[in-house]
Amino acid sequence: MPKYTNGSGHRPTLAKLTELTEQTRTKLTHTGQKLNATRQKLGKKRQLGIAGVAGLGAAALALSLVPGDGSEASTTESVSASSVAFSSRQVEDVQGGVEKQLNDALAQAKAAAEKKKADAEAAAKKAAADAKAKAAADAKAKAAAEAAKQQAEQARKAKEAASRSAQRAKAKPVAKTYPNNLDGWIRESLDVMKKHGIPGSYDGIKRNILRESSGDPKAINNWDINAINGVPSKGLLQVIPPTFQAYHVAGTSWNIYDPVANITAACNYAADRYGSMDNVNGAY
Residue 223: CB partners within 8 Å, gap ≥ 6? Predict the structure, then answer.
């Protein structure tokens, strides 16, 4: 078939086709660069999908620009204005499809990145909340353990103090008390006499007290021979002062009218002279 010549009249149409082809190549190159940049952000499956779209676009472009036999148009009918217009629409459709796929991919990548960021922020917040809760629980447990430790220590100290008090109370003899009456005076005198080895019984002492003073610790005899001699008998067992002083028992009062001192001194004198107050049945 004849070639296009300078006088053919169809050269402007071919030049326009060539120019459109170059522009389309430039746009596809720019689009390919965007796709390459996007591949770095997308997964393998999405990369393959975009590459497939780009390949289909390039193939469609090639088929629309190249005649069926691979040569340039040889007749006026094969390079008509309508064929050029059809090829331009196909290029625009392919380019639009590629750009739509690219925009969709970018939107998906952005959405995935935002979701990943949101998930990371939520995980970080949850981790921070968990750490805070754990720290609070640990602090509470530590405070409870410290309080229990202090309570145990206080209980131990209280127990030790009670034990020491009990030991002191056990070691320290409890002072014996006596009623302030005739019964009490006789019993206290018997305990003192026992310490000093002075014999005598409760009944023997009481019997002589009732005869001598009727149980009056302040009793005094101002009419017998002792009174005439200036040394009247005094107290429960009517002891004269010289005898009281001579037979006074250590640990008792030096007051002759003191019931316990009077009984103890009189029993000491009776033991020395009669063997025991139990042996005295009258004036002595």
Answer: none
C-alpha distances in Å from residue 55, one per residue of 21, 47, 52, 61, 182: 16, 12, 5, 10, 135
Give the pair of three-digit tokens for residue 127.
């981790």
Torsion, CA 240, CA 246, CA 247, CA 251, rounded to 10: 110
Query: C-alpha distances in angstroms, 8 versus 75, 77, 117, 216?
Result: 10, 12, 64, 174
Prediction pTM value = 0.43
Is residue 278 within 8 A of residue 238, CB to CB? The reply is no
Q: Which amino acid, residue 197?
A: G
CB 237 within 8 A of CB 211: no
- How high is the mean pLDDT in each 10-residue block of the chain (284 residues)? 44 62 72 69 51 49 44 41 51 74 87 92 92 91 91 91 81 83 97 96 97 96 92 96 97 97 98 96 86
Share of the chain residues as helix, strand and coil, in percent rounded to the nearest 5: 70, 0, 30
